[in-house]
Amino acid sequence: MSTTAVSTPTVPSPSPAAFVTAVESNIKAEAVWNATLSPRTLILGPNASAKSAVLDAVRLATTGTVADLLGRITVADPSMLATLSDASEVMARATLADGRVAQCVVTRGRAGSVKKPVLTLPDAAVYPLDGVREALGGKPETTRRYLLGLVASDITDEHVEVAVGGAYLVDYQRCAKAACEGKDSGVVALGYVTDYAKKRAADLTKEGEAIEQHGRTVGQGLGPEPTDEEVAAARASWETAVAQNAVLDEQAKTKRTTSPTAQIDRAWERVSVFEAEAVEQMGRFDAATAAHAAKEAERAAVAKTTDVTDHAIATRRIGRLTALQTIAQWHREAKPPLDDCQLCGRTLPDGAEVRFAGLVEACDGAVAETRQAAMGGVKLSRLTAEVAEAAATVEKHRVAALVAVERYETAKAEAEKLAESVGNDSAGSDENGVAGGGGDGATIATPRVDTTRLSLAHDALRSSQMRHAEVRRAYTNAGQKRAEADVYDRLYKACRDAVKRLLLDGIARFEREVSGWLPPFDRFGVQLLDGEREVARIGLWRGGAVGDDGSAPPATTLPATTSPRLHTALSGGEWARVIAAIACVVAQRLAPKLCIVAFDDRSFDPVTLRAVLDGVGGVGDNRADAVPNLQVLIATTTCPDGVVVGDDGMVAADAIDGWTIVQTGPLPMQNSVVGADPLAATLDEAVTA
Q1: How confident is residue 322, by pLDDT bands cut at 50, 70 and 90?
Q2: For 55-58, which contacts have Cβ atoms below 8 Å and span 24 or more sequence positions?
């Protein structure tokens, strides 16, 4: 793009709607350029002539975003917006017909940083084409709900409730809260409820089948159901047997603990315990005696080998020796040497330093000996105390050992006496001819009952009873699930029928609206139902008769040989004009908000482009003054059919009725169409085909 201004020919006075009348920017340029726009503007020029820069400038000024970066997706990242121009500041300013000015400035900071864009009118315009592309290019469910909203935009909740029917109104309202949480209304909410009811019916049916299958599995091989009386009788038999066995166990335990043999065994067990205790106490006494003897021997050795001196006497002696040593050291080291003794005043003889040195060494030896004697006295005192403590320990263990031995001997004597007594009783009984304990042997013992068998029998009856109850619950729950599934299934069918009734007129009306923005040879079509199956299809009708409004009549009004067929495999050019037409319809419904439908054409041939221009901005309900909130901006390299290109490659600004042509550069002559307008013949051929 050059630094010269874009060609901006004079255009007729704009309509009073708040569309963008002028734009200036430095996008893709070093200098600021400007362009004058109208409600229907065709931006024409060769490649790399800054056509998309005009679209970017309008969008940046009104929204702070562009759609011409990273594969032509919407971009709002400041660092990406800053690349739109080599200048330090990217600027776009759009003047609206009502005098307002929308402006966006993106400034580079220090060290390459980019500041947040500054917008004067951040909500100046909306771009419905973005929403159309996103919805139609998303998931099938998203596309269908979006089309439902467009087709039935004027259908209210009251219309839906009447169509559903009073019999299902309560269920519908309950499902609407669960399905869309009050966020949607009308046919969109009806679509959510239809999907929700269908899914719930299928889920509940599956749950009922699973529960019923579980009941069949549990009941497989199950015999007759036992009565409560049978279960109670089995439990009573088991509890009686348990009580009887408990009595027998208690009698056996008593007999074992009171028999003479058991008494003798317990007596000898006591003897063993007391014997072990006596042995342990004797061991402790022996160890204490040995420790006492060792301490006594150590004390005697210290007393024999150490010159013991009283600690107080030793301390006083060490003090005197230390004082004498200090005085001798001072006299020896005095400088200059002393002539007289500083203590007694006598004259010191020759060689006094040597004598003082000998005195110092003698004091050192005396101090060491005195300290050794004092330490011997301390050690001997400590050992004497330890010997006394060891003697006390010996006495304690001696007394404990005597007590343990006495208890052992007493227990042993009692055990021997008891054994002798029992032996005499047995011998006397044998002499009388009666065996010991013969009275008990004459009694017939009561047999123990097999409580395990009775418990298993009771558990089997109880388990059978519980399995029968589980089977009944399973069949009951399965029936409830089926009944609930039937409710949802009836609601689903009612909602599906309501959708058909409500959408019949809505689809025809929406098709007429979209077709009104298309060339006459295009008939827009929508399918949301294919028999019982929910679909989301858009395209162009092919074949069949054409209505006065350009839409396809219902197939039921046509002979079988002329029924229209919805062509959904659209070419690039067909898809571009279809979504642009839908965006124009959306813009009509967003009035009075300014809606800008702007796109960069890459697929229209001259004939198709001229037909699109006539369909979007030409006559009738699509005039600029008829839809004042819609502004259409199309950038293209293709010269529309019938437009005369001059020798300089330029065209007239008003060459197409209802449109303003803003040319960004001369067209190559080989791409231009010169001469009379052949559009009528071309359209006749297309309609006939």
Answers
A1: confident
A2: 55/598, 55/599, 55/600, 55/633, 55/635, 56/25, 56/27, 56/28, 56/84, 56/92, 57/23, 57/24, 57/25, 57/27, 57/92, 57/94, 58/20, 58/23, 58/92, 58/94, 58/596, 58/598, 58/633
